[in-house]
From TrEMBL:
<feature type="compositionally biased region" description="Gly residues">
    <location>
        <begin position="685"/>
        <end position="702"/>
    </location>
</feature>
<dbReference type="Pfam" id="PF14262">
    <property type="entry name" value="Cthe_2159"/>
</dbReference>
<protein>
    <recommendedName>
        <fullName>Carbohydrate-binding domain-containing protein</fullName>
    </recommendedName>
</protein>
<feature type="region of interest" description="Disordered">
    <location>
        <begin position="681"/>
        <end position="741"/>
    </location>
</feature>
<dbReference type="InterPro" id="IPR025584">
    <property type="entry name" value="Cthe_2159"/>
</dbReference>
<keyword id="KW-0732">Signal</keyword>
<feature type="compositionally biased region" description="Gly residues">
    <location>
        <begin position="320"/>
        <end position="336"/>
    </location>
</feature>
<feature type="compositionally biased region" description="Low complexity">
    <location>
        <begin position="357"/>
        <end position="395"/>
    </location>
</feature>
<feature type="compositionally biased region" description="Low complexity">
    <location>
        <begin position="732"/>
        <end position="741"/>
    </location>
</feature>
<feature type="region of interest" description="Disordered">
    <location>
        <begin position="320"/>
        <end position="397"/>
    </location>
</feature>
<feature type="signal peptide">
    <location>
        <begin position="1"/>
        <end position="29"/>
    </location>
</feature>
Length: 741
């Protein structure tokens, strides 16, 4: 098997422990106090010490349980009270309920079976003790022209059963009429002020024309059933928690798809999902947990904000090749900031909120929809959604958590106008399959992003994977980004047009396992701090412009294991640092090389160290492998062909032949810098052709994500000036055996 395609298809990892070697101050990963969040511990680190950051595994079952009442769908006609609905009236047979015109009130615990059609009325549950109500929908169609068809005022718990083989429909009014201006309940087609559980194998269709589809002011649990919701605002809301065990859930919402809202109690406000099928189209967030979000399984198709095609256009961090000048970091250095405007000035990014804002008056929402106007009623005050509830900000994320977000499994297809996976704290992915197209970040955490398993395929993003710190210890990850592929920075993302992270110098990208392939137009791996790599396989293609680098770090890059293949531009070329215990080479070409042209590195015995075909044009390559040995003799060639099998452009097995030798050299240091003439010395403080860092020279500028620019660049910067034409160019004859793993 390939040295670069490792057998590291990691399975489920129950405990993620990332040991980070930082070159500066304390890690900025937060410590959560919520029982619903993954435990995070951070050990303070002084300069040169290690910062230990652990995300303990948390499962949905750790947060919520389903008791016997929740899962019990069976009922007996002998002991149940039946409620037969007929137009604008109802007939009650049994005890505990009474009908008055078009209103049915249930006032005692027990089992109640609803069937028939209520054309304009309301089912009210008002039980003044802790008794549970078992409400069976047995082919019921409920409509109300001025309020909610189902209003649960009080009860110990309500279990709503969808009877097998039945279709049940609940439709509320587009405008609600309340008894006075101070009243704002109910506000959903099915509205509960008690714990609400839905089970059974039937179908429930909810049309929330006024505001939400289904809302519980306490717990909302779904055990099973087919649930279809259309909502003027949010689809499913559980203030204290939303828990889903199974079921088929389809939601079309002008607000969020599924959300929890309790932001006052850290033990509440979470979402825990064990399984089920989810098809959600939401104008705002797809699934949002206020304090935490844990997903163990299920199948998810999420489209938010109209999808990535509807995302805000970002100008990127690419900055152009500013060239010119002797800046603080070298010729033409430090030119990477906001994209310049027409007059050459740097445009400031827009400030956009990431959290929901509370509106105090009727107004057009951030999505451009207008809340319904109050009804004209002299006897009763009418209110509308915007006057009584939150209006959504411009957050249009797929999976979102105000605290920790944990995914232990599931199949996800996410098309988001904003981040696809987002946490205001930590993200932990231990397993699952992700297909992501994102208008902003593919995966984002304000603190720690940790991936230890699963398959992540980000086919479109502004920045692929972002976090205050990032740890990759397993999984198969493919990233396509219009800006940075992997971005490590400090602070938080304000959802503006640019990355608002600030560099603290202590941020760390840690790679210990897994397979990571990056195709980036900006930086490939970008750490506003340092990088450590001790295992895994990393392949980076791009960028092609000299204003970015395939590797970009401010502190150090220490590699002690794993396989690293990089092809990109040469203007800001960096390689692993001199303190690395594993050897690396960094090759700069005089001219740009064609995309798809093979690069081959072999030892003096003809054993291939690496063969790969960059997907973009390139002018530099960096290779690090455990098979590179001090004192060994090696040859780098381009062109030719390979009979091996290719994955992400990297060839395994087979033989390489027909290439053109570019340079032969002996390996004498941890980082060997090459051009077409042979080995050359890396020079501190200069950036190669137009590269480097620091204050820009003529036409330069600074990068806002770097803090103060200028000064001596990190170890591993490229040689001074343009490489001269080499003496290579002889065509190889015969074939070289590829003795890859």
């Amino acid at each position: 098997m390939s040295k670069f395609i490792m057998a590291s298809k990691a399975g489920l990892i129950l405990l993620l422990a990332a040991v980070m070697s930082a070159c500066s101050t304390t890690s900025n990963a937060s410590t959560s106090s919520s029982a619903g969040a993954a435990a995070v511990t951070t050990a303070a680190a002084t300069s040169g010490a290690a910062a230990n950051v652990q995300l303990a595994s948390v499962k949905a079952a750790d947060l919520v349980s389903f008791d016997e009442e929740d899962v019990a769908a069976a009922w007996s006609a002998d002991s149940a009270t039946t409620i037969a609905l007929s137009g604008d009236s109802a007939t009650v047979t049994g005890t505990g309920a009474a009908a008055s015109g078009n209103t049915v009130t249930i006032s005692a615990g027990g089992t109640y079976v609803l069937s028939g059609t209520l054309s304009d009325g309301q089912i009210i549950i008002d039980v003044q003790d802790d008794s549970s109500v078992h409400l069976v929908l047995n082919g019921a169609e409920l409509t109300n022209s001025s309020s909610a068809p189902v209003y649960i005022k009080e009860a110990g718990k309500v279990i709503m059963t969808l009877e097998d083989g039945t279709v049940n429909t609940v439709t509320d009014a587009a405008k609600y009429v309340y008894p006075d201006a101070a009243t704002d309940e109910p506000s959903a087609a099915i509205y509960s002020k008690a714990d609400l559980t839905i089970n059974g194998t039937g179908t429930l269709k909810v049309n929330g024309n006024f505001n939400d589809g289904i809302t519980s002011k306490d717990d909302l649990k779904i055990v099973s059933g087919t649930i279809e919701v259309q909502a003027a605002d949010d689809g499913l809301v559980g203030k204290d928690l939303v828990a889903v065990q199974d079921g088929s859930i389809t939601i079309t919402a002008e607000g969020d798809g599924i959300k929890s809202t309790n932001d006052e109690d850290t033990e509440k406000g979470f979402i825990a999902i064990s399984g089920g099928t989810f098809d959600i189209k939401a104008a705002n967030d797809g699934i949002q947990g206020e304090t935490s979000l844990v997903i163990d399984g299920g199948t998810y198709n999420l489209v938010t904000g109209g999808g990535s095609a509807n995302a805000e256009v970002k100008t990127g961090d690419e900055g152009g090749f500013g060239g010119g000048g002797f800046g603080g970091g070298g010729m033409g250095g430090g030119m990477r900031g906001q994209a310049p405007s027409g007059d050459g000035t740097q445009a400031a990014p827009p400030e956009m909120p990431d959290t929901d804002a509370v509106a105090g008056a009727t107004a057009e929402s951030a999505e451009g929809t207008t809340a319904p106007a109050p009804a004209d009623n002299s006897a009763a005050a009418s209110t509308d959604t915007a006057a009584t509830a939150e209006t959504e900000s411009a957050s249009m994320k797929g999976l979102k958590s105000g605290g920790d977000l944990t995914v232990n499994g599931g199949s996800f297809t996410i098309d988001s106008a904003d981040d696809a996976v987002h946490s205001n704290s930590n993200v932990s992915i231990t397993d699952g399959e992700f297909e992501i197209t994102a208008g902003d970040d593919g995966i984002h955490a304000d603190s720690l992003t940790a991936i230890s398993g699963g398959t992540v395929n980000i086919t479109k993003s502004y920045e692929g994977i972002e976090g205050g710190n990032i740890t990759i210890s397993g999984g198969d990850i493919d990233v396509v980004a219009s800006d940075d592929g992997v971005n490590v920075a400090g602070g938080n993302d304000t959802n503006g047009g640019q990355d608002q992270f600030a560099s603290s110098g202590s941020n760390l990208l840690t790679i210990t396992g897994g397979t990571l392939t990056v195709d980036a137009s900006g930086d490939g791996l970008d750490s506003n701090g340092s990088i450590t790599m001790s295992g895994g396989t990393v392949t980076v293609y791009g960028p092609t412009n000299d204003g970015n680098g395939a590797l970009d770090y401010d502190g150090s890059f220490e590699i002690s294991g794993g396989y690293l293949v990089v092809a990109g531009s040469a203007g800001m070329l960096q390689a692993p640092g001199d303190a690395s215990s594993q050897y690396s080479i960094a090759m700069t070409f005089t001219d740009s090389q064609e995309a798809g042209q093979l690069v081959n590195l072999k030892d003096k015995d003809g054993n291939t160290i690496a063969t790969f075909a960059p997907s973009k044009s390139y002018r530099s390559v960096v290779i690090s492998s455990p098979d590179l040995k001090e004192g060994g003799s090696y040859t780098l060639s381009t062109g030719g062909s390979s009979t091996g099998t290719t994955v992400d452009g990297v060839y395994t097995d087979g033989t390489y032949s027909g290439g053109t030798e570019v340079v032969s050299f002996d390996l004498s240091s941890s980082v060997t810098w090459l051009n077409e003439s042979g080995v050359t010395e890396a020079t501190q403080g200069m950036g190669g052709m137009g590269g480097g860092r620091g204050q820009g020279g003529f036409g330069g500028g600074t990068r806002p994500d770097r803090g103060t620019a200028g000064g001596t660049p990190p170890t591993g910067t490229p040689p001074t000036g343009a490489p001269s034409a080499g003496t290579g160019g002889t065509t190889q004859s015969g074939t070289d055996s590829e003795t890859q793993m």
